[in-house]
Amino acid sequence: MINFNEQQQCYWQLLHQPESLYLLYQAQDVEHFVALMADFLNWPELNLEQMLAFIALQQPSFIPDLARFSQVWFPSRYHAQTKTISWVPIFQRLSKPFLEDDICDARRGLLASFIQPQTLLEPLLSQRESLPAINPNLMIFHWSRCGSTLVSSSFSLLKTCRVLSESMLCSDVMHHDAWPSSLIPQLVDLCLRLQGRLRPDERELVIKWNAWDLACWPMLLELYPNSRVLCLMRHPRDILASHQREAGMHMAGRVKALFLYSLPLSENTHGESSENTHAEPNLDAFRMDVLHGFAQQTAALYQSSRCILMDYQQLNALKPSVLSAILEWPLAAEDIEHWQGHWRFDVKRQGQLFVPMVPAQSTPLNESQTLSWQLLLNAYEQLLQPLVRDKNHDAS
């Protein structure tokens, strides 16, 4: 007769044993996987249906020992409605241009298909200090379509560097307004300790934030005061043109780009005009307002003297050795060679040579948007001024 208390204890232990989990990860077929589970659970008669039913029963009450559990399991998604997080097993180092791509790869295979732990987030806070503290070597903020993926993916080539590129989990937790504001820094740090936990061969950590996380820079710099900070921007005309071809989440209204400052919203942004109070929101106006918010946040960040500000055109003209010098990140000759080869290709389209986008000559505007565009352009050009001064100073 099966003692389910014993099986539950065996299952809890199994989820904390990297060697056993790796055997399950390597299972070639369902029959082999079930046989391994029968052995690990001390349940000789176990079949597929029993295994699935048993695993489902363990979900609601599962509380892991994070220090051991997170050696294999990686927090992959935040569920705002239930304030829970999902976990996937990751045995390989993170290497894709975006973290979501690594997570997608990790979801393949029998282990991730059959065992999908979910835990409440807040109760895990009591274990935060049991996890290694993180000290990011570099945090990257950006306006989107500014070359940030090229920079972050270059660091992924360094064998000792771990890169978190646009963690949706961290962004979703950070922007979930159901949490008390005093708790959010601790929750974000917990998520980063879990996702940014260094492997034995890793020594550095680079975090590239989502574009809409720019508003959170004061909190993030307070959390990690020793991190270098790079902020990338680009001519708004070119960013808008890029999002017209393929819109990012924040430019399609799928996430809320939060700003500390009130924005000079265009007349039609919320579908309100003197002629038609029921007009559809104007997408171009909305996107200009988002970029204006980015410009305001970037100005405040730059004035804090905590960041290196760089424009897309500057980045395009740099050599890898110059960028590493600017970031005070020494590279070996072999690494510089790898970066040079990497920069020839489009990081978002594997195997394709990089073809620079021809800058748009103008942005089509209707009369009501002209003022908003001019305000945005002025804000961008003001940010360019110190960069031009620095360039002239270096030339002299």
Automatic annotation (TrEMBL):
Protein name, entry field: Sulfotransferase domain-containing protein
Organism (species): Shewanella xiamenensis
Organismal lineage: Bacteria, Pseudomonadati, Pseudomonadota, Gammaproteobacteria, Alteromonadales
